[in-house]
Design goal:
58 residues; N-terminal domain of TfIIb; 3-stranded antiparallel β-sheet; binds zinc ion; mainly beta
């Protein structure tokens, strides 16, 4: 599980804009439409504050 790259398809809970984000990203990602904070780094993990619509494995 740790060796694979995981991408998440998430939906902004505020404006429903879809975003593809890297699962292990340690960055804060904001919605490009409404600026809602979608992911937030928390102690090496990423806390996702949006709805996960799909998990994409590469
Ligand atoms: Zn949004």
């Amino acid at each position: 599980m740790e060796s694979k790259s995981k991408f998440l398809k998430i939906v902004c809970p505020r404006c429903r804009q879809r975003h593809i984000v890297f699962g292990k990203s340690s960055l804060s990602i904001k919605c490009r439409k409404c600026n809602y904070l979608l992911t937030k780094p928390a102690g090496g993990k990423t806390k996702i504050r949006a709805m996960i619509e799909a998990i994409l494995w590469r």
